[in-house]
């Protein structure tokens, strides 16, 4: 009898282990590379979605900026003031490149991913709030340089009459994405603050009801 029970327990344990192994195997590969639950679940789903979309849009616009900027070429023939503003753009571009690389590497370390950073890894930072905040700030600086300095720079306009139009349009798109993102965050924060007093009131009511029942 004891041997039969022991055999049954051993069989059940074996089945349980096999079931656990199957569950691990069935997990999709991308699930391992997704944003850690501790990071993603700390914000409402709609806010995570908005962050991801804004970051995606800004990354696309940043790629366009780098493509356009590559058409500028040598700056030596431009006046000092124009060169300074373009150098400011170069600084912001370098800051963004470093920011992207460092944050992807950080997330890779957190997820124990060992590989060289490639453009296909950019999805890792789409939902990362820490990255999004700094990224939008630098992109805003880039947009401001274009709209407040280069847009009215006669020398730059004469040297690049078509390119300045593309730059200004791009900078405006960047500003629009950032403005929408910030407006959404503000609205989301207001909703969170509105929900909190209601929740506290509900908890207080539950406590009062509990005390009444005890009496």
Tell me what you see in this structure:
Residues 195-215 have a biased composition (Polar residues). Residues 192-215 are annotated as: Disordered. This protein is an all-alpha fold and 215 residues long. The protein has a domain at 42-188. It is 79% helix and 0% strand. The chain has eight helices and no strands. It has helices at 2-26, 29-33, 37-40, 45-69, 80-110, 129-150, 154-159, 163-214. Helix 4 crosses helix 6, helix 4 runs antiparallel to helix 8 and helix 5 packs antiparallel against helix 6. The longest helix has 52 residues, at 163-214. It starts with a helix and ends with a helix. Residues 16-41 have low confidence and may be disordered.
Unreliable residue stretches: 16-41
| Euclidean distance between termini CA atoms | 55 Å
Number of strands: 0
Note the run of SSEs as H and E: HHHHHHHH
Helical run tally: 8
Rg = 27 Å
Pairing-aware structural class of the strands and helices?
Answer: mainly alpha
User: What percentage of residues falls in helices of 4 or more residues?
Assistant: over 70%
Region (Disordered): 192-215
Biased composition (Polar residues): 195-215
